[in-house]
């Protein structure tokens, strides 16, 4: 029998892999046999994540400290990975941030910072990985983590820079998919809805957000740990070679209304 989602021997680079959804997706890919590169700014965190994944799933891992807004560091990080593993088959562009304030009070620094990390950083990592690893190999799976807020606006939580940046990630995904699709590389995006992470815990636990979930989400709840994993595995699969340039909302139906 064929296992369509077997990633044995593949190398998966996950950015923002120090906490939250990045770690969850890295574990899901490791569960399918992928070697994992955990990349983020906090050295102790990614080293702990890499160690845990290696011990739990029996796959090779690597921790790489990197600020994705620093082009030179991104290029050096990709070189480091290629020295160790010789390939990068899967890139999960997960690193991001979120400025929350009414639009009229958002500062230039907040707006520019958001674009620099969420959109600029996503592009810089994709560019380096494609140029140095995937284009030469004529193979790659790039998964950009956008957001349902990259597809719609919202009335309950002012976050205009986040919407703008994630909307940019959505169309960047389409642009890269169009450009690299003939070269063996697929580029797709996952658009998560509300999931608990260290960044969102306090907001999602508020009575206001809890009530909003019942009104705005057909599933009437937030996403649980692990409910993003299958989308990441599907888009990482060698068998998903004809899936290119799509956005996969994993949002309990939020964007269907």
From TrEMBL:
- Reply yes or no: does the keyword Aminoacyl-tRNA synthetase apply: no
Molecular function via GO? oxidoreductase activity, acting on the CH-OH group of donors, NAD or NADP as acceptor; quinone binding
Q: Which GO terms describe its biological process?
A: fatty acid biosynthetic process
Q: Which InterPro entries does the UniProt record give?
A: NAD(P)-bd_dom_sf, SDR_fam
Q: Read off the Gene3D superfamilies from this record.
A: NAD(P)-binding Rossmann-like Domain
Q: Which UniProt keywords apply?
A: Oxidoreductase
- Which family does the entry's similarity section mention? Belongs to the short-chain dehydrogenases/reductases (SDR) family.
Q: What is the official name of this protein in its record?
A: Gluconate 5-dehydrogenase
Record the organism.
Hallerella succinigenes
